[in-house]
């Protein structure tokens, strides 16, 4: 009996807009943030992760039916162009998550259409782009997403995100951030929606080299593996026949038949 791990098919999605318009971002990520994230996953995942990328300006944002049908886990980074994402594509992604596709939402993806749709909340927060240091404390060291990490990750410079964070209470809280300015933030949290698993991970502002950090790359790789359910259960609302004989219903003949779908 084979004990080989299943290959997890990962699609790394990114806007790929800042890198084209901001020289500082282009210098940090000459092939795009999505490529840096994908390269980290490929390096850490080896043969267990099959990684590809998709970007906003591709047809259907690179998320065609064929791509989504062959994606086990989708990672999402967006910022300056949340409004440019097609509602039809968002609905396709939402449906795939409910069927069992994993979703890893990164940094400013907290304000993306897809994250808001799945959270059912404002997803608002406080922020500051300055000279803050970020220290991400691991508050659930036994969780699979925290495996291989020290007790905290320290980033010398990052954008600050602060509470209150308009999200539903997480199923699991894995990281809490502290910033030099004194703020704290729930920086690593998970939820389940339908048959799918969702992980939000905070760091990753475009003007900092965060996605080149090996520990950040490790968290994303761990998050992808955790979010892989191996399931695809399509939504249905069938009319169920009884398993046992039912007693006669004297009013059945007079009752109108109404279908749900």
Give the strand tally.
11
Q: Give the C-level CATH assignment of the domain at 8-120 and 188-235.
A: Alpha Beta
Structural class: alpha/beta
> Major beta sheet, specifics?
9 strands, mixed
Q: Can you give the helix content as a percent range?
A: 10-25%
**CATH level 4 superfamily of the domain at 8-120 and 188-235:** Class I glutamine amidotransferase (GATase) domain
Q: What portion of the residues fall into strands of 2 or more residues?
A: 15-25%
- Output the CATH topology of the domain at 8-120 and 188-235: Rossmann fold
Mean pLDDT figure: 95
Q: How many whole angstroms does the radius of gyration measure?
A: 21 Å
Order of helices and strands: EHHHEHEHEHEEEEEEEH
Tags for this entry?
Rossmann fold; alpha/beta; about 260 residues
Can you describe this structure in just a few lines?
This protein is an alpha/beta fold and 261 residues long. It is built from 7 helices and 11 strands.
Description of the molecule:
With 261 residues, this protein is an alpha/beta fold. It has a domain at 8-120 and 188-235: Rossmann fold. The chain contains 7 helices and 11 strands. A 9-stranded mixed β-sheet has the order 2-1-3-4-11-10-9-6-7. Strands 5-8 form a two-stranded antiparallel ribbon. β9 (172-179) and β10 form a beta hairpin. The radius of gyration is 21 Å and the shape is globular.
How do the helices and strands line up, and which of them pair or pack?
Blueprint lengths: L7 E7 L3 H4 L1 H6 L4 H13 L3 E7 L9 H5 L3 E5 L9 H13 L2 E5 L6 H7 L6 E3 L5 E5 L13 E4 L4 E3 L9 E8 L4 E10 L2 E6 L12 H14 L34
